[in-house]
Amino acid sequence: MTSPSFNIGIEEEYQTIDPNSRDLRSHIHAEIVQKGKTLLAERVKPEMHQSVIEIGTGVCRNIQEARLEIQSIRRQIITLARENGLRLAAAGTHPFAQWRTQEIYPDERYHTIVEDMRMVARANLIFGLHVHIGVEDRETAIQVMNGARYFLPHILALSTNSPFWQGMETGLRSYRCKVFDKFPRTNIPDLYSSWSEFENYVNLLIKTNSIDNAKKIWWDIRPHPHFPTLEFRICDIPMRVDETIAIAALCQAVIAKLYRLHEQNLSFRHYSRALIMENKWRASRYGLDGRLIDFGKQAEVPVRDLIHEILEFVSDVAGE
Questions:
Q1: Nearest to 101 by CA among 120, 132, 122
Q2: Where residue 1 falls among pLDDT bands split at 50, 70, 90?
Q3: Beta-carbon neighbour count of residue 191 at 10 Å?
Q4: pLDDT for 40 beyond 80
Q5: Mean pLDDT of 84-105
Q6: How confident is the model at residue 320 (pLDDT cuts 50, 70, 90)?
Q7: How far apart are alpha carbons 70 and 248 in whole angstroms?
Q8: Which domains does the chain have, with CATH numbers?
Q9: pLDDT, tens digit (0-9, with 9 covering 90-100), for 302-314
Q10: In this structure, are strands 164-165 and 168-169 parallel, antiparallel, or unpaired?
Q11: How many whole angstroms separate alpha carbon 19 and alpha carbon 231?
Q12: DSSP 3-state assignment of 109?
């Protein structure tokens, strides 16, 4: 079994904004995606709504490379948007934009999703951060993912950046989570004993016409169906590069630490989906100012204290 590379890939979804109204505006006529591809090749892509642009790094060997690439991409795409009469914003939801008025990007994949899920898809006007960590062996990826599930609410709490929805203050630090909840096959994944068990699940869904490929499994963490990575999908997009990089580094360190335990035939304790979902709700509601459940202690603990505990937990691998 080959040791994981722990390579990093980062994807960010940006809002395209009208500079006068500050409302969302389609990037179609400004040809931001087409012009972006000229500058950045496949690092710029459209998303389902025409007011969303996705960027992605290449495969980065370490967090320093990832920082340089995200900084460069952000700088270039912000400049390109300004030159074409738009602005970009980074937040998990727009404060007042109405999803009903947003147009769908003209792509067969997106129209298929809308046809399948109707209003659920049209209302999914959200903006996230996805972090890929290289774990090339699929069996190892499943075992590491099982342990990583526990840390997802803590990582969400660090990223919460979507308190507004449709002109209202929701009272939640991450309302984006609640919007995406309406999609099928989301949230915390179940435990899987092996890669074959996961494959059987995917194959059953394909066989029964529930999905046509594994990309339509949108869990908060998943083995990516095309890349040899574990993909963290739980985060709101942060506003600042420093925040994105800090979260990506923590994701990488958690995976590296769990792999080290796995390599030593040790395991991080696995908790049920129901328990982790309880913490996810708390993270989305209160963010860093809340309390999560420490399942070992069977007690509520301030999120900030738990984050410090996680940093201590991964400290022996963080510098490698």
A1: 122
A2: low
A3: 15
A4: yes
A5: 97
A6: confident
A7: 11
A8: 8-313 (3.30.590.20)
A9: 999 999 999 999 9
A10: antiparallel
A11: 33
A12: helix
Residue owning tokens 């869904």:
205
Characterize the bridge pairing of strands 8-17 and 128-134.
antiparallel
Lowest mean pLDDT among 137-151, 161-175, 256-270: 256-270
* 261, HSE (Cβ side, Cα atoms, 13 Å): 17
Chain length of the chain:
320
Name the residue among 10, 287, 311 with its Cα closest to residue 161: 287
Instruction: Give Cα separations from 247 to 35, 36, 44, 157, 177 (angstroms).
Output: 29, 26, 21, 10, 17
| Chain position carrying tokens 């709504």 | 49
Q: At what angle do helices 241-263 and 303-313 cross, to 10 degrees?
A: 50
SS3 content of the chain, % helix, strand, coil (to 5): 45, 20, 35
AA identity, residue 232:
F
The pLDDT of 52-64, averaged and rounded, is 97
Phi-psi region of 69 (alpha: psi -120 to 50; beta: other; left: phi over 0): alpha
Q: At residue 130, does pLDDT exceed 80?
A: yes
What pLDDT band is residue 319 in, cutting at 50, 70 and 90?
confident
For residue 130, the one-letter residue type is H
Q: Which long-range contacts (CB under 8 A, 24 or more apart) does 210-213 make?
A: 211/185
Residue 77 to residue 75: CA distance in whole angstroms:
6
pLDDT at 201: 98
Pairwise CA distance, residues 174 & 219, whole Å: 17
Measured between alpha carbons, how far is 315 from 320 in angstroms, rounded to an integer? 10
- Assign 8 to helix, strand or coil: strand
Distance (Å, whole) CA 297 – CA 310: 15
Q: What are phi and psi of 92, to 5 degrees?
A: -70, -25
d(CA 12, CA 237): 6
Mean pLDDT of the chain: 96
Is 66 strand, coil or helix?
A: helix
CA gap 317, 320 in Å, rounded: 5
**Residue 258 corresponds to which tokens in the numbers above?**
């769990």
